[in-house]
Amino acid sequence: MTGAPARLLTWFAVMATLLTACTPAVDLTETDSGQPIASSSAPSTNATQTPVPPQPATPPQPAPPAPPPAVPQAFALNLYQEGDFVPQYTFDWCVAASIQMAHNLIDDTGGGTWASSAQQSELWEMARARSSNSFNGANPRGWAQVLTEVGMGPYAVVSIASYEDALQTASRAIAETGRPVGLVMWSGRHAWVMSGFESMGDPAQFAEFQVTGIRVLDPLYPHGSGQWGASPEPNSLLTPEQLATQFVVREPRRWSTDLPTGYLLVLPVAA
Fold this sequence. Notes:
Layout (H helix, E strand, L loop, with lengths): L2 H20 L51 E5 L15 H13 L10 H13 L10 H13 L2 E6 L2 H15 L3 E5 L4 E11 L9 E8 L18 E3 L1 H4 L19 E6 L3
Antiparallel strand pairs: 1-4, 2-7, 3-4, 3-7, 4-5, 5-6
C-alpha cells in the first residue's frame, strides 16, 4: 500500500507541470477588462527639449554715403526787356530816370512804360524833397523813399565796405526780390540801375559766390563823363573791373548821412 500513494503523488506532480506549460502568457497590452491599452506616437511632455541657439542680431546697416558737395555752376539773371531804358532829360535828373527804369524792370503786367519827361520832372521833385541835403538835388535817401512810396519798395540805402561784398549783396537782392538795385556812382554824384548779373554759383544755393558780370543801365547814355568815362550802352554786361572804374566808394562830404564810407546801394529788401 505504501507504493500506491507514492505513485499517486508522482502523477499529481506530472499533471501540475503539464498544466503550467499550457497556461497562456498574460498580454501586457490588455487591461484587466480585456480591452487593448491605447498607445500614442506623440512625444512625452516630460521629454527633454533640445535648446534652440539664439539667432545672431542683424548688424546695423551703414548709413548711405553723403552726396558730394555741390559745385558752383555758371548762373545768370537779367530783368531787362527791350523798352525798359529811359534817358535822363536833364543833367540833374539821373535819380528820377533811374526810378522810371526801376518801374519798367519790375512791371511785367503791360501797365505802361514810365518814360515821359513830365513824369521824370515830378519824380525828381519828389526825391529832392525827401533828400537830407536838397541843395545837392535828389540823393540816395530820397531815391529809396520814392521807390518805396510809389509801390516798388521797400528799398533801403546801405553802405558796403568791400567791393566784392557789395557786388554779392546787390546780386543776391536781385535774385531774392526780383527787383533792380540802384548803384550810387562817381563817389555819390550819379545814379545807375543794376538790372542783372552773371556769377559762378546760384545765390539761392551758395552763401559765397563769385560775381563775374553786372548788367547796368546808365540814364546819361550816350553822353558819359569826361572825368569818369563813357556811358555803357543800355543792358551792357560789365566785368567787375570795368564797373569799378565808375562805381567807387561814396565821398562822405557829398551829402549828410550817418552811413559809414563804402559802396552805396539803393537796395530792394523783403517786405
